[in-house]
Amino acid sequence: MKRLVILLLLGLSNIGFAADTPLSQTEVYSTNYDARANIPTSLTREKAIRQIPAISPGEYFVPPDVGDIPTSKFGDMVKLGRNIFIDTQHYAKRYVGNGLNCSNCHLQEGRKAYAAPLWAAYPMYPAFRNKTRDVVTFEARVQDCFRYSMNGIAPTLDSPEIKAITSYAQWLSTGAPFNKELPGRGFARLGKPRDPTPVNGEKLYKENCASCHGWDGKGQKFSHRDGYMFPPLWGSDSFNHGAGMSTVKSCAQFSKANMPLGKGWTLTDMEAWDICTYIWLQDRPWDPRFGWFFNIFAPPTGGN
């Protein structure tokens, strides 16, 4: 017991010494320096993506047709990127830890407005992300999709998978202006008349979502091949707690414009919030940014 008290006192004295010792401006302690923690305060928060109205309702940027993919080495990489995007389970399986494909969230092969279309995202990078508190490239953003949405491992920046998806996104953006927000970018923006209720969300889920995603939220698999016809919304084969879609807000914004499938914009704003609050409360893979203690005992992030 006496040894334990001595060790605690020594530890506290070391902590106090470290806190009281300022870093010299002429010296850099690599082990103490955190670049992300030292970015200017004004860069730590940015406004959410704005919703830019379409000039003519229902009209958005039109990416090139698949038949227009060039016959060249670049075209081959674009084709590989498209294959990875719509069948990630087959073409990038080594980096995927669940049962999803990229196109489960980026609908219509990454073309659909308000379903995070690639043609609206690619021209806006490099960009600052509140999530990482850093300026990231498009390639680094794709890495995060593998880590969180696919609950897997981030491919290296020079991997064929990252090069191919980036090539596909660049090709879809052919003719789009750089560094200009386009109508249809990201997800829809919602009002929030009141606090959402999971009880109402469960009822609405069973009425609007369960026929495709299942009463247990674990999706429906294809009968003739691997993969899901309707993706799991929770459970071990779904995205993890670190994914953007795991937050109530992103889920509600996506659902408002796209769900039920083929009947987008039929849910009220409040119905989308209620349904996604119910989904948020379900079990899913851990957030890889945190250890087991936080994942078990702390409430999941993204609830508001």
Automatic annotation (TrEMBL):
Q: Does the keyword Transferase apply?
A: no
Every copy of the Cytochrome c domain together lies at 76-173, 196-283
Q: Which GO terms describe its molecular function?
A: electron transfer activity; heme binding; metal ion binding
InterPro entries from the xrefs?
Cyt_c-like_dom (IPR009056), Cyt_c-like_dom_sf (IPR036909), Cytochrome_c-type_DH (IPR051459)
> One of this protein's Pfam families, by short name?
Cytochrom_C
SUPFAM superfamilies reported in the protein's UniProt record: Cytochrome c
- Give the range the annotation lists for the signal sequence: 1-18
Keyword Heme among UniProt keywords? yes
Q: Which domain of life is it from?
A: Bacteria
Keywords, in A-Z order: Heme, Iron, Metal-binding, Signal
What's the protein here called?
Answer: Cytochrome c domain-containing protein
